[in-house]
């Protein structure tokens, strides 16, 4: 589903970035693009986090990028397992980088970089040991 901010090809490439980022860890990454929320994006992001079952992964190591391009708003939510291992300053830095790129109109590259960077953090703390089950779909969701 193309948006005025991402083409279908860029969306497909972001799905590939999610697959690549998850390849060497047991972590799960989801991206949700919200075009409906006018206020309280953070509250909606937590609701989406729960709806997408991100709080139900075995190691509690799922991460959600909740994006509202129209408002240039981003919420990054890490479940308790990853949040316990990665400092808040890491998430703040990642958030600041992505939103500064959004402000420049670099939506696709900012999201892709954020996804891949998150994959490196997940790999540090949740490396694959044996079979790597994909617990959640890699698709990008929309509202």
UniProtKB/TrEMBL annotation:
Residues 4-117 form the TPM domain. PANTHER family: BLL7265 PROTEIN, UPF0603 PROTEIN YGCG. This is TPM domain-containing protein. The lineage of its organism: Bacteria, Pseudomonadati, Bacteroidota, Flavobacteriia, Flavobacteriales.
């Amino acid at each position: 589903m193309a948006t005025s901010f991402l083409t279908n090809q860029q969306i497909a490439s972001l799905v590939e970035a999610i697959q690549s980022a998850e390849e060497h860890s047991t972590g799960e990454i989801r991206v949700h693009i919200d075009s409906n929320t006018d206020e309280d994006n953070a509250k909606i992001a937590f609701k989406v986090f729960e709806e997408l079952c991100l709080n139900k992964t075995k190691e509690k190591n799922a991460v959600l990028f909740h994006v509202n391009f129209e408002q240039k708003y981003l919420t990054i939510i890490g479940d308790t397992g990853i949040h316990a291992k990665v400092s808040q300053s890491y998430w703040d830095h990642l958030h600041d980088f992505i939103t500064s790129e959004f402000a420049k109109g670099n939506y696709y590259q900012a999201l892709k970089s954020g996804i891949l960077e998150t994959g490196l953090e997940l790999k540090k703390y949740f490396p694959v040991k044996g079979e790597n089950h994909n617990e959640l779909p890699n698709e990008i969701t929309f509202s």
